[in-house]
Amino acid sequence: MESLINFFLNQWQRKLFALLTALVIWFSVSYSITATKTLTSVPVRIINLPLHKTVQGLLPNGFLNRRITLSLTGTKDVVEQIEPGDLEVLLDVSNQPSEWVVQITKKNLVSLNPNLNLLPHISSVTNPEFVLKMSTILTEHVLVTFHIQGTAPEGYEYLDIWPVTLTQTISGPQEQVLDLKDKGLELVFNLNNIKKEQLDAYRGTLEAPYNDEVAFYIPDPWKKILISPLSQIPEALNDPEAYDLHLTFLKKEFLPIKGELPILVFYPLKYGATLNPKNTPLGANAFVQYTHDIPVLKVPLLASQVSKLFLDTVHDSLEIDLVAAPKSERESLEWDVGFVDEKHIEDTYVALMLETIKPLSDTLTQERERYLRKRFGSYAKKFTLLLTPEHPLIINSSLEEGKIIIQVPDAVTTDAR
């Protein structure tokens, strides 16, 4: 023990100097050993933007919507400790031109790890060149159109959507906003996500008999739209009318036609000499009879693919239209369902529908009217007559002994009932 003490005390000044020299050499060598490490997905934060300016790709949180790759060179033991997520790049754009090539230095590095002091240990930073461009902030209303996919719940038919379109107020770089305004935005709704039980439950709250048109109000989580490239996160629809956004479904039913339908025969002028009401009238039989000299179809019928309100509105204007033609040209005459004074009944239908809707602004009332007229036209186009739910109405008609004779296969006449 005494010899060990003597060892340290003997010429201690020289030994202390040697130790200090060794430490200096060790630190010098340690700091002289460098390493390079490449980090990917490094976030870039922008600060000090001039008033009314923004940077393309800037997110609301101040970061760019893209990340960059950096290669850091510096003290080996520090550089090798750096992990993804330990740093971010901070760019001060207060004195930059409107467009510039970004060169990142160690002064732009911000340590997110309190145990890492980067500045004295990083000697150089390299990064792939990229361009930042400042633009004027522009706010515009961009049209949002809706698309429907999937299949309506069992027992229902999809009709339409209201509002037909909306607008989204967006702000961002002028070039990108104008491009979005030119292209518009789109939002897709999938009918497969709507359950029959949801429509049945809402239908139960409606007053009969006009409870076959069912509105499904779009849930708030569905009212979000991705505005790329301005944002990577879907944003809520901000049009005030988005609160009323709903899909309308028609409950599939077979509606009885009350009474008989009149029959009108059209006689083309080119056949007038041989085919006209006097020499080729519509003959009476079990299927056709005359009421007050008006031929009517004596067959009980059902209507499908229309609402009860539509049917009640058009009922007194329905007729069966036949087109007369020589037997040499047609064995069976063409026929169709006609709507007499269609413009008047369309006006009536739209007025009745508007009465059920809360008051709207003049502009929205006009839009809603156009929307309802389109629905009326769709109903009129799809209107179908049937004998039973399984059998559509078929009318066979031909010229026999100077009369037009109608036969309805598989039909039971009203008199037979």
Question: Would you write up a description of this structure?
Answer:
The chain is 22% helix and 35% strand. The chain starts with a helix and ends in a 10-residue tail after the last strand. The protein has helices at 2-9, 12-32, 76-79, 174-183, 196-203, 308-314, 342-355, 362-382; strands spanning 34-42, 44-47, 53-55, 68-75, 87-92, 99-102, 109-111, 122-126, 130-149, 156-162, 165-173, 185-190, 213-217, 224-225, 235-236, 246-251, 255-256, 261-266, 288-291, 294-297, 302-304, 318-323, 334-339, 384-388, 391-392, 396-400, 403-407. It is α+β, with helices and mostly antiparallel strands and 417 residues long. The longest helix has 21 residues, at 12-32.
Number of strands: 27
- Our count of helices gives 8
**Apparent shape:** rod-shaped
Low-confidence stretches: none
Q: Give the C-alpha Rg.
A: 40 Å
Report helical residue fraction: 10-25%
Mean pLDDT: 88
Q: The biggest beta sheet, please?
A: 5 strands, mixed
Strand content: 35-45%
Distance between the termini: 130 Å
By secondary-structure content and strand pairing, the structural class works out as alpha+beta
Task: Provide a concise account of the structure shown.
By secondary structure, the chain is an alpha+beta fold. It contains 8 helices and 27 strands. It has helices spanning about 1-10, 10-30, 75-80, 175-185, 195-205, 310-315, 340-355, 360-380, and strands spanning about 35-40, 45, 55, 70-75, 85-90, 100, 110, 120-125, 130-150, 155-160, 165-175, 185-190, 215, 225, 235, 245-250, 255, 260-265, 290, 295, 300-305, 320-325, 335-340, 385-390, 390, 395-400, 405.
